[in-house]
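Obj: model holo form, ligand = arginine.
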Amino acid sequence: MNESAHILLVAPTHYEVRYAINPWMEPERWLRDAAGFGAQARRSFDALVTALRAAGCRLTVIDGAPGLPDMVFPANAGVVLDGRLLLARFRYPERQGEEAPFARAFDALREAGVLREVASLPEGVFQEGAGDCLWDATRGLFWVGWGQRSNRASVQAVADYFGQPVVPLELVTARSYHLDVCFCPLAGGEILYYPPALSADSLARLRERVPAAQRIEATEDDLAHFSVNAVSVGREVVMSRTTDRLRGVLAERGYRVREVDLSPFMMSGGGAFCMTLRLDRRSTAPHAETVAAVTA
Ligand code: ARG
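Output (holo structure tokens):
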């Protein structure tokens, strides 16, 4: 049975690529056919909605805001666990304007009873949301990326707020500017990751906690397809069009891969995962919660 995931999406109405804050971004290419790419982005978004619904996810779609094109990547807006949301603080001025509209959207979700608390980071901490802070439901911990957008201090801030174990992972390349570009905990317990993106220490930390049989190494080609930036729910995996190699590896492990053409969003350095924010993550497995509720 599927965990029923509740996912936040932001409609791509104001999406465009008009600055470059990561090496994948192509504003000049976008400008050559802004209207065409805009239309393509809306079709890609609709296809993502269809794929996520087919994978059994419940979706909440909010509006973005003019002048804030990257709002379409809500994974960067906050970290959520047990109904508690820690608001992001963005590294670059290009995205800092997103903080206020996202905070308003999360307050509305709190009023609607979807979230129960919305909190801010301490001063001086940069933390770009779930893009750099991935909940590993199998191990009951957060993998926290730092070194590109989020700073080292964010690791402690996440640990302090959520009171859950955290494992810091240092990102050492500009192409993997967020952890979710190069690292994905799959629902079955495997970790799909691209080794060259992590420091030697961080790789050792990962290999200490995840046995070889559960480590799936992505290739440079998988990374360039934004295949590691995947949404994993139960046996379903939703991602941008992937490689024959990775499609085979995942199928062999029993995953059903749903591929979507996300090329207009890859022109901004994004794939399926960063276009989503899971609102329903719990620190205890849903099964354990049911048992607790019954015996209480
Ligand atoms: N253009 C956006 C940026 O550079 C893309 C963000 C994609 N998000 C992610 N979690 N990988 O900030």
